[in-house]
Write a structure and sequence with these properties.
Elements lengths: L1 H26 L4 H11 L1 H21 L5 E11 L19 E15 L3 H67 L5 H36 L19 H11 L1 H21 L5 E12 L7 E12 L7 H67 L5 H35 L14 H6 L10
Helix pairs in contact: 2-4, 3-4, 4-5, 4-7, 4-9, 6-8, 7-8, 8-9
């Protein structure tokens, strides 16, 4: 009885522990790397590209099979009728009873001795296709990762903007309440109260708009990552960001998956040109065969023959088809070379633009940080001066609006700088975010704290 009770208690404790563990796990925040991993695992386009890559792997195995010999077996059994007179002419009306059983068996082995490089070029084509497919898969994975990073940080940004909008709304409520109390006490005027009411309504509208934007960003995150966001964490600029544009461009040319995919397509075009020229060359095969026949071709006995042959086939004239095929393959090779040059120029311009934007955003971040600090001090000073009738209500509201707009821009610039940094990493071929969790900057907390309302009473 005691043993059963102990087992029951153990099972109960295990169940409670499991429930607690699930609760803790569900409450954990989702890091940027976790969002990316989740999106990559659930993206159907990536799955389709992976299946295509596997198919090309089998195409490559099939092409390499051309190096090996082919062995074919032919077996036959049936009945036949054959008659011939002494003069050598066939009897047009043989006896129906002349049907006899007949059989034959043939086995043939053919090994390519020289095929002009056809098999080697077929293998090279498949290898280039596999390389291209692999790089396109990586390029798609980079795009999915970048979209997920954008969705993740947009949700986080919008949540912060909502906190800021709530703070802005609370400030306007405090101002309105203070003015209403002063007006009722006979120390204020109704114009200030109505003006404060108008600004309060605008602050409410701003909050509603921010909440709508949050719903939109959540929907985008769910579509990209495959599930709704759960406590998304902040992410700072990646530590692996190159120090200058030159390094970005060097990494781009070596590691950008789109450029590498186009380069592989250029290699494929070169192999196809070489394959087209194969038709000008002879082909030599080694053929080993063995044939057994019984009662074939009117012969009442069996026959067995073995052969070992070197066969040469050479296309001497084909109506100009081979020459035309070479011309087409040559122009397609030139096309692929031009395509790579265009892709490199496009990516170079994109990287240069992104780097300029990143540098600008870093400078803007510093400027907006200063703007927030100065506008905060201005608002607090104006509010105190308004209490002593040294400032108008319009001065106070304008100072508060300047503070709010600067705070909004500071958050947006900070997030946009991080997104631009990850864009540069994607161009360099490595957009994988760090597994470490970045701490939210202190000024984020300061922005969402209520400003002191000294002097508003």
């Amino acid at each position: 009885m005691i043993t059963k009770q102990i087992k029951y208690n153990l099972h109960y404790l295990l169940l409670v522990a499991l429930l607690l563990l699930m609760t803790v796990l569900s409450a954990q925040a989702t890091t940027l790397s976790q969002s990316v991993e989740q999106a990559l695992l659930s993206n159907p386009q990536l799955q389709a590209l992976t299946y295509n890559q596997r198919a090309i792997e089998y195409d490559l195995k099939q092409a390499k099979g051309g190096y090996l010999p082919s062995i074919n077996l032919l077996l036959g059994y049936g009945y036949g009728q054959f008659s011939e007179d002494d003069s050598g002419s066939f009897n047009s009306d043989p006896d129906d009873n002349d049907w006899k059983s007949r059989s034959n068996a043939t086995i043939r082995l053919v090994q390519k001795v020289y095929d002009g490089g056809e098999t080697g070029n077929q293998v090279s084509i498949r290898e280039a296709q596999l390389s291209s497919a692999d790089h396109w898969t990586k390029a798609t994975a980079q795009a999915v990762a970048l979209d997920t990073i954008t969705a993740h940080l947009n949700v986080f940004q919008q949540q912060e903007l909502i906190s800021l909008a709530k703070k802005n709304l609370q400030i306007h409520r405090n101002i309105y309440r203070s003015l209403a109390e002063r007006e009722q006490a006979g120390a204020g005027n109704i114009a200030d109260v109505t003006q404060a009411q108008a600004r309060l309504a605008r602050a409410e509208s701003t909050l509603y708009l921010s909440q709508a934007d949050l719903s939109r960003t959540i929907a985008k995150y769910t579509q990209v990552a495959g599930s709704p966001p759960v406590k998304l964490t902040y992410a700072a600029d990646p530590r692996t960001l190159p120090e200058d544009l030159t390094t970005v461009l060097q990494r781009l040319e070596k590691h950008n998956p789109e450029l590498l995919a186009v380069t592989a397509e250029m290699a494929e075009a070169g192999s196809r040109l070489a394959l087209a020229r194969v038709n000008y060359k002879p082909k030599i095969d080694l053929e080993l065969s063995s044939r057994y026949t019984d009662h074939m071709d009117g012969n009442d006995s069996w026959q067995n023959s073995n052969a070992a042959m070197l066969n040469l086939r050479w296309n001497l004239f084909n109506g100009g088809q081979d020459k035309a095929g070479i011309g087409a393959a040559l122009f397609r090779k030139n096309q692929s070379r031009s395509k790579r040059a265009a892709k490199l120029a496009e990516l170079t311009e994109e990287a240069a633009t992104a780097w300029a934007n990143y540098a600008s955003l870093q400078r803007q971040k510093t400027a907006y940080f200063d703007a927030v600090e100065f506008s905060r001090k201005t608002f607090e000073a104006y509010l105190k001066q308004f209490t002593y009738s040294q400032r108008s209500l319009l001065d106070v509201l304008s100072a508060e609006n300047e503070y709010f707009q600067s705070a909004v821009q500071l958050i947006r610039v900070d997030i946009n700088a991080t997104l631009t940094a990850y864009h540069l990493l994607a161009l360099s071929g490595n957009v994988q975010p760090s597994y470490n969790t970045d701490a939210v900057p202190d000024y984020y907390y300061e922005l969402t704290q209520s400003l002191p309302m000294a002097g508003a009473n």
